[in-house]
Description:
The protein is mainly α. The chain has helices spanning 4-7, 12-27, 33-43, 48-58. The protein contains four helices and no strands. The relative contact order is 0.20.
Amino acid sequence: MTDAGDIMPEGEDIRKAVKWVSECRLEKKDIPLHVLLEEACIRFDLSPKKADFLRRLIRGEVSEEE
């Protein structure tokens, strides 16, 4: 199994976004995931490519080949 650190694209912004979403999911369980993902993309100024990667990573849709 691949560790998330092994499949993350370079960039501190995506790492911070993943951490932020993960923390929010624990603290704010009533907020829908898609809302958190949208806010993370804005908050961390993610490019469309990184925003898509974040969504797929959080939802468990990223494969080892990526």
